[in-house]
Amino acid sequence: MTIGAMRYLLVTVIGVAVGALSGLMGVGGGFVAVPALVLILGFNQQMAQGTSLLMMLPTALVGAISYSSHRNAHLATAAAMALGSVPAAHFTADLAQRIPEASLRTIFSLFLAAMGVFMVPSAKPGALASVAGVVLIIAGFRLALGR
Questions:
Q1: Cβ contacts of 18 within 8 Å, gap of 6 or more
Q2: What does the pLDDT read at residue 147?
Q3: Which residue, among 30, 26, 31, has the nearest Cα to 67 in the 3D structure?
Q4: Which of 23, 95, 102, 143 would be a feasible disulfide site paired with 109, CB 3.0-4.6 Å?
Q5: Side-chain half-sphere CA neighbours of 58 within 13 A
Q6: What is the pLDDT of residue 93?
Q7: 84: number of CA atoms within 13 Å, CB side?
Q8: pLDDT computed for residue 22 by the predictor
Q9: Which pLDDT score, from 0 to 100, does residue 134 have?
Q10: Residue 59 sits in which domain range?
Q11: Count of domains observed in the chain
Q12: Is the dihedral of CA 60, 65, 66, 67 positive or negative?
């Protein structure tokens, strides 16, 4: 797939948003990248999820180094979590390839909306987490309804 100049600019802007939210909120880029890849760039769900994971490798590394340099990352906890998350990610990424695209999009959409529902009441009024929660709810429903 080749990327034209305007599309390249759009993809870069999406990348800036993903990186900013990842660094600021400590969330994986999938909350932003997957809906953007599906709704704006027209990727199917599996391609969007795979692209998002690939894009997050350097983003997560840079963010982790920055948080660690400020002594805000617990290495032992991260290592223990990785012991479980790495094999689980391998198994479920393989599983996602066999789930029909519409079903996978619905599952992702419901997850996105649920995360938004949980974020809104726990945030102070007008807080960034409250706004992010509403955005997640809207993105989840938009994805569920299709492009």
A1: 29, 32, 33, 36, 55, 56, 59
A2: 54
A3: 26
A4: 143
A5: 3
A6: 95
A7: 4
A8: 73
A9: 66
A10: 5-145
A11: 1
A12: positive
DSSP string, 48-106: HHHHHHHHHHHHHHHHHHHHHHTT---HHHHHHHHHHHHHHHHHHHHHHTTS-HHHHHH
The one-letter code for the residue type at 30 is: G
Give the position of tokens 């982790």: 64
What are the structure tokens assigned to 141, written together?
A: 């429903």
**34 touches 26 (CB < 8 A):** no
Amino acid 76 reads A
The tokens for 100 are 């029909």
CB atoms under 10 Å from CB of 43, counted, come to 19
Task: Report the chain (147 residues): mean pLDDT per 10 consecutive residues.
Answer: 81 87 73 87 94 89 91 94 94 96 89 75 63 68 67
Within a 10 A sphere around the Cβ of 131, how many other Cβ atoms? 13
Which two structure tokens, joined as six digits, stand for 114? 């649920």
Q: Distance between CA atoms of 67 and 57, rounded to whole angstroms? A: 16
CA 62 – CA 48 distance, rounded (Å): 22
Q: Phi/psi of residue 43, each to 5°?
A: -70, 150
pTM value is 0.79
First to last CA, the chain: 20
